[in-house]
Specification:
six-stranded mixed sheet; single chain; alpha/beta; two-stranded antiparallel sheet
Length: 306
């Protein structure tokens, strides 16, 4: 089985990405060496005779060039092994998927944010996450599902309107949410900074903000924002509200989503101080993106992509 995997990878990638470029490089360098000879003529037979001559072989396979070729091959196979390990490991752990199912039991609303790039939404693991939430919404009938996309640079916002960048994925994502009736809003970098300023330092710690933003976001001028703003993974979360069951009061909990390459991991947060920080964050986001429960026109991602 391992040999079949390696053979398929070799057939698909080694030839076009390693062997062919190396072969072309050898041919081009031999041709240049032949062109620089005093007795050069535009003769294919002379080129072929020179290419297979001991002089050419000695020139191409001297110690320096042999070391370069061997180093290139070793580096290529090292990178290939890294990608094999990354792409064949589990994308979303069964425990995490079970954690998501368990968290959605008796839930009546989910307010989620996302820092994913547009194309990352269409990775299998992200689609599994979204399909699970949509299935819960369809099964319960009264499940309120809302989502806000967080953009940390103006370049990201511009790219979603350009078909040759993220425009195609953005339109597909907006159509998907529109089809299922899920409101989809967005926030710009300056608005994210303004929201962080309304929170206390302790709240910013609970949200796992970078240290420089915890203490300096109150002093950062908007024109310098692009130099200090970075993706805040703690802001990729879902706030779940659960129905009261068996005499217990309604419960709030947070699911923090972390996507690393093709891997999706979930962290369940139930500690009251941290949940309260996420509730404050949610309220501040809704103040800017929603009015009377509906998405504002200037923050409607579906309208932006139309």
């Amino acid at each position: 089985m391992l040999l079949k995997i390696l053979w398929r990878i070799a057939w698909r990638y080694v030839w076009p990405h390693l062997l062919i470029p190396l072969g072309v490089g050898v041919i081009v360098e031999s041709s240049i060496a032949l062109y620089l000879r005093e007795d050069f003529t535009w003769n294919v037979y002379q080129w072929w005779a020179y290419f297979k001559s001991p002089e050419s072989i000695a020139r191409m396979w001297n110690r320096e060039r042999f070391g370069l070729i061997i180093g290139t091959v070793i580096t290529y196979f090292g990178i290939m092994l890294y990608y094999i390990k990354r792409d064949t490991s589990p994308k979303i752990r069964p425990l995490d998927h079970g954690k998501l199912d368990e968290s959605l039991v008796n839930a009546n609303s989910l307010f989620g944010t996302s820092i994913l790039r547009m194309e990352e939404w269409f990775d299998p693991s992200a689609q599994l996450y979204l399909a699970t939430v949509i299935n819960e919404r369809s099964a319960s009938g009264n499940f309120n599902h809302q989502r806000v996309l967080l953009f940390f640079s103006q370049r990201e916002i511009k790219s979603v309107t350009m078909p040759f960048l993220d425009g195609y994925y953005a339109r597909c994502l907006s159509h998907l949410h529109k089809h299922y009736g899920i409101p989809l809003a967005f926030l710009e970098p300056v608005e994210i900074l303004e929201i962080l300023r309304t929170l206390t330092i302790e709240d910013r710690r609970n949200l796992s903000c970078p240290r420089h933003l915890i203490y300096l976001c109150d002093w950062i001028a908007p024109r310098y924002l692009r130099f200090v703003m970075c993706k805040i993974h703690g802001l990729d979360f879902s706030l779940l509200t659960k129905n009261a069951v068996g005499g217990t009061s309604a419960e709030n909990m947070v699911l923090r989503v972390r996507k690393h390459f093709t891997h999706v991991s979930l962290e369940t947060i139930k500690e009251v101080p941290r949940v309260q920080s996420y509730k404050k964050l949610t309220e501040e986001i809704k103040k800017r993106t929603h009015t009377n429960g509906a998405v504002n026109a200037d923050h409607d991602f579906i309208r932006l992509c139309a």
